[in-house]
Write a structure and sequence with these properties.
The complex is a heterodimer.
Chain A: H1 3-30, E1 44-45, H2 47-50, H3 54-68, H4 77-84, E2 89-91, H5 100-103, H6 112-132, H7 140-164, H8 194-211, H9 223-237, H10 240-253, H11 264-269, E3 280-284, H12 297-301, E4 310-312, H13 314-319, E5 332-335, E6 338-341, E7 356-360, H14 361-372, H15 377-389, H16 400-414, H17 421-427, E8 432-433, E9 444-445, H18 458-463
Antiparallel strand pairs in A: 2-4, 3-7, 5-6, 8-9
Helix pairs in contact in A: 3-6, 3-7, 6-7, 7-8, 7-9, 8-9, 9-10, 9-14, 10-14, 14-15, 14-16, 15-16
Chain B: H1 2-18, E1 22-31, E2 41-44, E3 50-52, E4 58-64, E5 69-73, E6 79-83, E7 89-94, E8 104-107, E9 110-113, E10 121-125, H2 137-140, E11 148-152, E12 161-165, E13 178-181, E14 184-186, E15 209-215, H3 218-221, E16 232-237, E17 243-258, H4 270-284, H5 288-297, H6 308-311, E18 316-328, E19 332-344, E20 351-364, E21 369-383, H7 394-400, H8 424-430, E22 432-451, E23 454-473, E24 486-508, E25 515-538, E26 554-578, E27 582-593, E28 602-613, E29 626-636, E30 638-640, E31 651-654, E32 664-668, E33 677-690, E34 695-707, E35 710-714, E36 723-727, E37 730-746, E38 750-767, E39 774-776, E40 779-781, E41 789-793, E42 795-798, E43 805-808, E44 816-817, E45 825-830, E46 835-845, E47 848-858, E48 861-863, H9 867-871, E49 917-919, E50 922-933, H10 936-942, E51 946-954, E52 958-960, E53 984-994
Parallel strand pairs in B: 1-7, 13-16
Antiparallel strand pairs in B: 1-4, 2-3, 2-5, 5-6, 8-9, 10-15, 11-12, 13-14, 15-16, 17-18, 17-53, 18-19, 19-20, 20-21, 21-22, 22-23, 23-24, 24-25, 25-26, 26-27, 27-28, 28-29, 29-33, 30-33, 31-32, 33-34, 34-37, 35-36, 37-38, 38-46, 39-40, 40-41, 41-45, 42-43, 43-44, 46-47, 47-50, 48-49, 50-51, 50-52, ...
Classes of the chains: A mainly alpha, B mainly beta.
Chain lengths: 473, 995
């Protein structure tokens, strides 16, 4: 062998012994380490990590509020169907087919929006439950967060029990919705009674009222927002005494003020969250970043975008006095060849989007007015006219049942396009009688019609062996 | 120890020296047409002596005096044994056959002769992949491999393709096979996040591929362990061969059009639309004033009758150019190539262009040490329109936009008052949807022969994919209007590395060579990282010229995240061969993965296989017409780890923000017991060749059980969670497949080659959690039934008395009802076909050739989930309708299946039922090609080695069984049409030039 092949062989040996084999062994061992297979996600935490401190609870609380903004919750579906299933808002002939089935009462148990309400409510309830059940040490801040979570949970159950069950005023022992207060993915709960659900809601709102000490802004629950919601719950339940007590607590002690006639237009055109405690007790915020884009509520009402499907019923428009500042919220025009009344309560379709009002002080006054009847007509007139005065509307002077009707009509006008009307017709056990804008086949929907209560979503029926469907579905 | 090894080597070398009484053999290797095969291997049987044929096919080899047989082989071609006589010069011709048992095939971690295989492996050659008008190689596999279903759902250039090998084995963990390119496990599928459909394999030039091996059973695939459950596709790219540098140039040009049209699903013109709408308003019972007002608002009699169907189509165009060079010497060989490919789809705004480059260098540093460098890069630009129900989807426009609304105003500008929908013609001009995809796939490898027959091999492979997606929605019209313009910029990077180290030892266990053994042991580690960053801004200046997110006033999304997974594995493979008659194989792999909880982090996979080459038995010597007869059997386990990287963890996620402050929420319910799905495939096969392999049959029967299925078990939504992933349930795929190929006619000037492949598969769910049904959309997963069973109400036609739609109240079909919601659902067939296959015939006469390739699929149902809008008896009244609504009920006594047309809908007729379900059976002429090969006499004058011209048609003819099938029968594995870009038929002309 010559030198060349010798050195070559030597190089080869060096390569083999010093580089090649050790490299393979080293890499093999390196990737054998346990950590090599123990990889954690970059954008998520375990529940223990995520709910460790009071600040974590605050972050989780925002997640619960964000859930309320869901498209099939306060983001759009709830404020929409509360009017289109009633007599306030109808669908233009020029439409994008959204909520047609609610206008026409042709929805099925497989309906996506209905499943959306159900799923979103319980998704938010889980978020609230995790905060309520957190073992982080109590402090004013932690109490505040837990209090807000109680109020959020109460709002979700209040929504569920009103849409998926006959009203408390019909039969307290009827089928309500399942009450879930813990995280347990294996649960297949049966339905609690309506009364049990109301008991839970009222208890949660008591907790919220007692735990909360801070007012953050209009898009978060506060002590008196929780009390206001409780007033509405009592009224819906038919418990007028408690409703009035709660309403008066808010009116007298809450520190909120009613919006005036002068500020009425700017109140509705403002898309931003407020801290001035004017009018709004609680609203669900949509901002310039976190919003539903085309699926936002504002897109269905605003004529500035591509949708604008929903119009105000002409008979409701006629009820509003020409001097009433509320008339200015409803400009008139034509759409699809028909004279139409548009709704300007949610004008912001870009940038910071219009928020969804969930509870306003004006409604608390109307609750106080209604709850004063039949026994205390002066109080009823006082509270309903407090609103009429601030809208430049003629004062109400009726008595007896006419006064009661006037208050219900005042609710219809004041809360139009806010998803409240259908809930009124339900708790009052009234038929839906609609004006000429609606399709002729659905001008009247009797209170007894099984479709007045939404079906338990088919997916839930398929999965949950203990679930019972509403009659007729 | 090292000294001992060296001593051993020394002794062996000495023995070789003793035997060195040499003679020199020369010869030439050609194919059946007489063309030289450069790079063919010529080996002396029973020794390590071998050489490679030069560029002209000539070879010279020194062989021992006592050498008796030369073995000549080339990848993709047959292998031939030549008995040495006193002659020293040989002409050797290798034949091309699809199922030649002497063929060398690429298998897991190496190559094997087909005769030695115990498993079920199908191969596709470069000739069947090159120069096709397909944007990715997966699309070219349709109908080429028995038991492999390759199906598109969109005709968009660059669209994803779904592949199923021997059926569907998993409900949630993925059913796509594992792709291994040049020994490196690579990610495939659609990695895009903004693009409607994309395909990572689009960046790989099919012209760079030498062969594709499809591993279908345990013996061939379970060495890939936890990722092998859905079969393995091994892609081998082209290598250089020593000799004079050879150049090759291929080009192709063509154009395309929509492949399938059902006239019943063409949109109405203005007169028809307003006639049916007036009828619908009358049926709704509104006043004449209202009717007139509504019709006027829809543009009645406005003099416009715009054909959106024609307007959103374009003449598809297609072109590609590929050039390659290969060559080298005994020490170093190279292959390099470059390519350009461009395709425009038949729908506006759909296009793809690709630039490719590849280089592969092999160096023999010494007799013992080899290096290999391989780098393959591709860059794709793609534009793909929206699909499904998006208003910006041009295909949706054709069905939804009214003919009374033109895309243009009289002054030629775009008409933006389009009835709440979007003018997709304007949007294709003003908006941007762009994908740029870069892939680099490469490896460096070395193998070192430590002692004779003991080879250590190491390979480090890398796959690096970068996707840049840009989207701009203008502030004036369409999806951007609400936010006064918006733009997205998404960046996605997938980087994966795999380090494989194997030690291979082979030896004759019996000294006479009757019993041979071959063992490989190895270690493999791999890691995958997926980095994604997303930008979005809104609020754009009122211009079309500023399209990047920087121009937006309001930032909306600014996020980046990383997702990782890792595997470590030890593996071993072994094979015993007795006289080439009896072959026994086995494999074992232990896989660990980050995707599973600590309790279940490692699992073992194994296989055994055996084959019996009966034709080698003496008792078959008399049956001379049987040239090959082989029985194969294999059984083993494979896994499916196709599950989210962190699915097992209970998680709280972020981004649930409120008032632009951070919010968190439970995102994943978690399951610490999660582990891989277990597959147990049993395969029994038979290979038969008769009449000197003029006729070949390869038959396989299989029974593939899949257990511990990863299932998203739906939870009661009252829990706040939609579903939990569990290892529950089992499934079975049984079936058989065969490939029958032959040469019915072979004469001097004319030959006819024919190949039929056929596969029948039956899928059955064996068990589910509590054996409860799992309904999901239009489907149900039910014990005893096929997965992907449609679960819908049974449409019973129209009540002749009043035109109401009727549904059967239940599966007995004894009673009907006009109430959709109270009618029961039941299983209405499956989206999965019973039978798939392909049939190819090739005729050659002198230089002319005709090749026709049919693909077929029978037994599945296809759903049109959007049909309710355009045939739904008036539902979605302000949208256009298709011609099928003209068959509607009009007066008592009418017999039809389309109900009375009522403005805004008739009794939930638009809701899901079998009305919107069709039989999916089809036969499609996937490829027909007429070619001419210039004769060698002309070639030599032109000083080129070959020149081939062809005209090719793709998808030129389609037969469907169901005359009501609305759209193309190829609608993905789920068989649900989604208003996608039409699948094209293409005509191309091309040439291949070698010099």
């Amino acid at each position: 062998m010559n030198d060349y092949s010798n050195s070559k062989r030597k190089k080869m040996k060096i390569f083999r012994n010093k580089i090649f084999l050790p490299l393979i062994v080293w890499v093999s061992l390196a990737s054998c380490k346990k950590e090599f297979l123990d990889l954690t996600p970059s954008t998520s935490l375990t529940p223990n990590q995520a709910l460790a401190t009071p600040a974590d609870l605050q972050v989780a609380l925002r997640g619960a509020y964000a859930g309320l903004r869901g498209v099939d919750f306060y983001g759009r579906t709830l404020p929409v169907i509360g009017d289109v299933m009633a007599d306030n808002v109808y669908q233009s002939v020029i439409n994008t087919n959204r909520y047609t089935q609610f206008v026409n009462y042709t929805f099925t148990k497989a309906d996506g929006n209905i499943a959306g309400i159900w799923n979103t409510a319980y998704t938010v309830i889980l978020r609230a439950n995790n905060i309520i059940n957190s073992t982080v040490d109590a402090s004013p801040a932690v109490n505040q967060y837990k209090g807000e979570a109680y109020a959020i949970r109460a709002l979700c159950y209040f929504t569920l029990v009103r849409y998926f069950a006959r009203p408390y005023t019909d039969n307290p022992n009827g089928l309500g919705v399942p009450i879930v207060t813990v995280r347990d993915p294996t649960l297949e709960p049966a339905r609690n009674t309506v009364a049990e659900v109301y008991t839970q809601i009222i208890a949660d709102l008591d907790q919220a009222y007692n735990l909360m000490t801070m007012y953050v802004n209009s898009s978060q629950f506060s002590k008196y927002a929780a009390k206001g919601l409780q007033a509405k719950v009592y009224l819906t339940k038919g418990d007028k005494a408690n409703a009035k007590t709660a309403a008066l607590d808010v009116i007298n002690n809450g520190g909120f003020t009613l919006v005036t006639a002068a500020n009425h237009a700017s109140y509705w055109s403002n898309p931003a969250v407020t801290t001035n405690k004017v009018e709004t007790l609680f609203e669900v915020s949509s901002d310039a970043v976190a919003n539903l884009a085309f699926d936002a509520l504002s897109y269905l009402y605003s004529q500035a975008g591509n949708y604008g499907d929903l119009l105000l019923a002409s008979d409701l428009y006629a009820l509003i006095d020409p001097a009433d500042v509320r008339k200015a919220l409803y400009p008139t025009g034509t759409r699809g060849g028909f004279p139409s009344v548009f709704v300007n309560k949610y004008p912001a379709i870009s940038g910071d989007r219009s928020d969804t009002k969930v509870l306003r002080l004006s409604e608390i006054y109307l609750i106080a007015a209604e709850a004063s009847l039949p026994g205390n007509e002066p109080d009823a007139l006082l509270y309903v006219n407090a609103i009429r005065t601030r809208r430049n509307a003629p004062l109400i002077a009726a008595t007896g049942s006419a006064l009661f009707e006037a208050i219900i009509t005042e609710r219809r006008i004041e809360l139009a396009a806010e998803g409240d009307r259908y809930m009124d017709l339900m708790r009052l056990k009234r038929d839906v009688n609609r004006g000429p804008n609606f399709p002729s086949s659905v001008l009247q929907i009797l209170y007894s019609d099984f479709k007045r209560v939404l079906p338990i979503p088919q997916a839930e029926m398929d999965v949950n062996q203990n679930m019972e469907q509403n009659p007729g579905w | 120890m090292r000294k001992l090894v060296l001593l051993l080597v020394g002794v062996l070398l000495a023995i070789c020296q003793l035997m060195a009484q040499q003679r020199t053999i020369t010869g030439k290797v050609t194919d059946e047409k007489g063309a030289p095969i450069p790079g063919a291997t010529i080996a002396v049987k029973g020794t390590n002596l071998a050489t490679v044929a030069g560029p002209d096919g000539n070879f010279t080899i020194s062989v021992p005096q006592n050498a008796k047989v030369l073995v000549v082989s080339s990848i993709g071609l047959g292998e031939k044994e030549i008995a040495l006589t006193a002659v020293n010069d040989y002409s050797i011709s290798l034949t091309t056959k699809t199922q030649d048992l002497r063929e060398v095939v690429v298998v897991a971690y190496g190559e094997r002769k087909r005769a030695d295989l115990t498993g079920s492996v199908s191969t596709v050659k470069s000739a069947d992949l090159e120069n096709k008008p397909f944007t990715s190689v997966d699309k070219a596999l349709q109908g080429q491999v028995a038991g492999l279903q390759s199906v598109a759902s969109s005709g968009a250039p660059g669209a994803a393709q779904q592949i199923r090998i021997r059926g569907t084995s998993s409900i949630t963990a993925g059913n796509e096979p594992l792709w291994v390119i040049d020994g490196v496990i690579v990610p495939t599928g659609d990695a895009s996040r903004l693009t409607t459909t994309a395909n990572l394999l689009s960046t790989l030039n099919p012209n760079d591929i030498e062969s594709v091996s499809v591993l279908k059973d345990a013996a061939s695939s379970s060495i890939y362990g936890a990722r092998a459950a859905n079969g393995v596709i091994i892609v081998t790219t082209k290598k250089g061969r020593s000799g004079k540098t050879k150049f090759r140039f291929d080009t192709e040009l063509g154009q395309s059009d929509r492949a399938y049209t059902n006239n019943k699903y063409l949109p109405l013109n203005a007169a028809e639309y307003f006639s049916i709408t007036r009828e619908g308003l009358v049926n709704l019972g509104v006043t004449q004033t209202q009717i007139d007002a509504t019709l006027a608002s829809l543009g009645y009699n406005n003099g416009t009758d715009f054909n959106w169907y024609d307007a959103i189509q374009q003449q598809g165009r297609q072109q590609q150019y590929n050039i390659s060079a290969s060559g080298g010497n005994e020490r170093t060989t190279f292959y390099t190539s470059g390519g350009y490919f461009q395709q425009h789809g038949s729908t506006i705004n759909s296009s793809l262009s690709r630039y490719n480059g590849a280089v592969r260098i092999a160096n023999k540093a010494s007799d013992k040490l080899n290096f290999n460098l391989n780098l393959n890069g591709g860059f794709v630009r793609q534009r793909t329109p929206l699909a499904g129900g998006a208003f910006g989807n041009p295909v949706l426009s054709t069905l939804f936009l009214l003919p009374s609304r033109s895309a243009y105003n009289t002054d030629g500008s775009y008409n933006l008052s389009i009835g709440g929908l979007h003018n997709t013609i304007a949007l294709s001009d003003w908006d941007i949807r762009r994908l740029k995809e870069l892939s680099l796939r490469g490896s460096i490898a070395a193998d070192y022969q430590i002692i004779k027959n003991l080879v250590l091999k190491t390979q480090f492979g890398m796959d690096y994919d970068v996707l840049e997606e840009d989207q701009y929605n203008n502030p004036f019209h369409g999806d951007g209007a609400a936010s006064t313009g918006r733009a997205f910029s998404y960046y996605t990077r997938l980087s994966n590395w795999t380090w494989t180290n194997t030690l291979n030892y082979r030896r004759d266990i019996l000294r006479n060579g009757d019993l041979k053994g071959d063992v490989t042991v190895g270690y493999e580690a791999s890691q995958g990282r997926n980095y994604a960053s997303s930008l979005q801004s809104q609020g754009f200046p009122p211009t079309l010229l500023l399209t990047w997110p920087s121009a937006g006033a309001t930032p909306i999304t600014a996020s980046a995240s990383l997702s990782e997974s890792a595997f470590t594995s030890i593996l071993s493979l072994g094979q015993l061969d007795y006289k080439s008659k009896y072959i026994l194989s086995g494999s074992f792999r232990r896989d660990g993965s980050s995707r599973f909880g600590e309790n279940n982090r490692y699992a073992n996979f194994w296989s055994i296989g055996a084959s019996w080459n009966i034709d080698k038995e003496s008792f078959l010597n008399d049956l001379t017409f049987i040239s090959q007869l082989k029985l194969r059997a294999s059984y083993g386990t494979t896994g499916n780890a196709g599950i989210g990287n962190y699915t097992w963890r209970e998680l709280y996620g972020y981004g649930f923000n409120y008032n632009q402050q951070p919010g968190s929420a439970p995102t994943n319910v978690g399951n610490v017991d999660l582990t891989w799905e277990l597959n147990k495939p049993l395969n029994i096969g038979l290979d038969l060749g008769v009449l000197q392999n003029r006729l070949n049959l390869s038959f396989d029967w299989y029974d593939r059980k899949s257990e511990e299925l990863l299932l998203d078990v739906p939870l009661s939504r009252t829990s706040g969670f939609a579903s939990i992933t569990k290892n529950v349930g089992s499934m079975q795929n049984t079936g058989f497949e065969f490939t029958l190929s032959g040469q019915p006619v072979v004469t001097k000037n004319f030959s006819w080659n024919s190949s039929l492949n056929f596969a029948k598969n039956k899928n059955k769910i064996l068990s589910l959690p509590n054996d409860e049904d799992i309904p999901s959309g239009s489907f149900i997963i039910r014990k005893g039934e096929s997965i992907n069973s449609f679960y819908l109400r049974g449409y019973a036609g129209v009540d002749p008395a009043n035109g109401d739609p009727l549904w059967y109240t239940n599966e007995t079909r004894t009673a009907t009802s006009n109430v959709w919601s109270t009618s029961e659902r039941w299983i209405q067939g499956s989206s999965l076909p019973d039978i798939i296959g392909g049939f190819t015939n090739t005729f050659t006469f002198k230089g002319f050739s005709v090749e026709a390739h049919l693909v077929y699929q029978f037994g599945n149902m296809v759903q049109d989930p959007w049909g309710g809008y355009y045939v739904g008896a008036g539902f979605g009244a302000t949208f256009n309708k298709v011609r099928r609504v003209l068959d509607r009920w009009q007066k008592p006594g009418d017999i039809t299946d389309v109900p009375k047309y009522i403005y805004n809908g008739n009794k939930s007729f638009q809701s899901g039922s079998t009305f919107y379900l069709s039989e999916g059976d089809f036969i499609r002429l996937r490829n027909i090609q007429l070619g001419y090969d210039l004769p060698s006499t002309v070639l030599s004058k032109l000083k080129i080695s070959n020149l081939f011209f062809y005209v090719r048609g793709t998808n030129l003819w389609t037969w469907v069984k169901d005359k009501n099938l609305p759209f193309d029968p190829e609608q993905g594995v789920a068989s649900q049409q989604n208003l996608d870009v039409f699948i094209p038929k293409t005509i191309t002309v091309g040439l291949n030039l070698g010099f």
